[in-house]
Amino acid sequence: MAKLGQRAENKWVGVNCGIMDQTISATGVAGHALLIDCRSLETQPVPLPPGTAVVVLDTATRRGLVDSAYNERRAQCEAAARFFGVPALRDVDLVQFQAQAERLDDLTRRRARHVVTENARTLEAALVSEQGDAVALGYLMDASHVSLRDDFEVSSAELNAMVACAHRQESCYGARMTGAGFGGCAVALVRADAAHAFATAVAACYQVATGITPNVYVCVATNGAEVVSG
């Protein structure tokens, strides 16, 4: 199902997306994040740190992926992979990147740096989440947002405002934009016992900052697509 969903987006919609969204929708496990190897399609459920909740922060600004720079970013990453002589940037580790990065032009270097460091953050996030370390997981989320904002340049003023509002709340471990960017949602990891107060405070903060009324959802990780009987 996930592979068919990706094919529809690639071939019919015209967006050269990966398979993350489709895979989590098909194979999610209640109470867990999901570590996905997008090459082998191997998945590993990762328990979320105890006492935490995930809050989705919808900026109420929409993105149009076909008309956005999504395909452009992919082409830039493919060019960087060719420079390093590998099938994809996942095959480049941080040491290799740093050794050769100065030979890349500034734009391609920043795009590649995001991907290489984000892959490392993702693996580390799975490890610290399994260890129940919400603080470390939040730190990685924050670093991810900075990289998406500055190196990959797929954030927006509204997404940045939303993340800033989340950071102002003491109950927030970390926050970052999510999805392809250019609008849409951010996501925050917060203390479960303060999740609803966090949601109210962030919504008010964001509305003051942008003049836009957001949609905020306190979420629970559930199973992927399955047959539900009455």
Description:
The chain is an alpha+beta fold. The protein has one domain: 2-Layer Sandwich (Alpha-Beta Plaits). Helix content is 48%, strand content 15%. The protein has 8 helices and 6 strands. The strands form 2 sheets. The protein has a 4-stranded antiparallel beta sheet. It has a two-stranded antiparallel ribbon with strand order 1-2. Helix 3 packs across helix 5 and helix 7 (157-167) packs across helix 8 (195-210). The longest helix is centred in the middle third of the chain and has 25 residues, at 106-130.
Number of domains: 1
Computed CA radius of gyration, to the nearest angstrom: 18 Å
Largest sheet: 4 strands, antiparallel
CATH architecture: 2-Layer Sandwich
CATH class category label: Alpha Beta
Distance between the termini: 24 Å
Helix content: 40-55%
Give the strand order of the largest sheet, numbering strands 1, 2, ... along the chain. Answer: 4-5-3-6
The CATH homologous superfamily is termed GHMP kinase, C-terminal domain
Low-confidence stretches: none
Question: What pattern of helices and strands is seen along the backbone?
Answer: HHEEEHHHHHEEHE
Shape: globular
CATH topology: Alpha-Beta Plaits
Quickly describe the structure.
The protein has 230 residues and is of the alpha+beta class.
